[in-house]
Every structure is written in structure tokens, then in C-alpha cells.
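Attaching the record inline, Q. Sequence:
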Amino acid sequence: MNTKIAQLINIMLFALVAGVFWGTWISLADSELNFGAGTFLDVGNAMIANLAPKMPYFVILSLLSSFPVLYFQYRQKTTGMYFTLIGFLLMLTATITTLTINVPIDNEIKTWTISTIPTNWRDIWAHWAALHTFRTFISLGALAFALIGALFFPKARL
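Structure, as predicted:
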């Protein structure tokens, strides 16, 4: 595998992860707290059911895909390695935020029904949404740094 192929894979995987976060953020951020409890549960549970089985693979692969890029850039002594490393660390931060805050709240929401939803569900969701905003923009930063590392420091063996 050469540097350009490794960078392409890395950037594509970062874009997929950031795209899921961005799509969720931009499509629901301004409306979900206005939903009634039933609609909130329907939408939330559908999204959790659709994303929970797939996202771990994309996130893990995106993080792992950084290592070949970093290896090639280190061997080539290119400054792009530092940008790729920052991108990796930002995606790792988004992942840690997801695993320590967002996923536990998702797991809690999965147990709620219309009759058992807590009275403070909007506060719980607002906390989830704030951290989702954080991870969304952190993941977009990760993508930007991966792109900078590839586009502005292109020294690579073809």
C-alpha cells in the first residue's frame, strides 16, 4: 500500500464518520427538543437501531486507517505527519466522547417507553445534544487535519 492509497482510505473513513455526526446534528439539532415524548422516542430509537450496529466499525476502521498514513509520512519525513496525527487525536477525542457520554445515554433511552420516560428527558437529551455538537465539530476538525496533511504536504512515493 502506498501513501496516497492509505491517505484516500483514511480521509474517506474520516469523512464517513464526520458525515454521520454532521447529518444527525444538522437535521435534528434544532427540532428534536420540540418533539413530544412519543415522537422523540420513535425517532431516537430508530436512529439508535440504525447507527449502533454500524458506527463502531466505521469509527474503529477510521482510527486504524491513520496508522499506515502516519507510518508512511514518518518514513518520508513530511510535516504532513503532524497534521495527520492531530486529525487522529481529534477523531480519538470524538470517539472517547461518544463512548463515555453519548452511547450510555443512548443505552438509557433504549429502555424508555412512553409510560416510563423520565420527566427530565429533555434535560438528558440536551446534555446528549451538547456533547454531540462537540463530537461533530471535533470530527470535522479531524477530517480537515487529515486533508491538510495530504493536500499541503503531498510528498509521497507513488
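Residues 3-151 form one domain. The CA atoms of residues 9 and 65 lie 7 Å apart.

More tomorrow.
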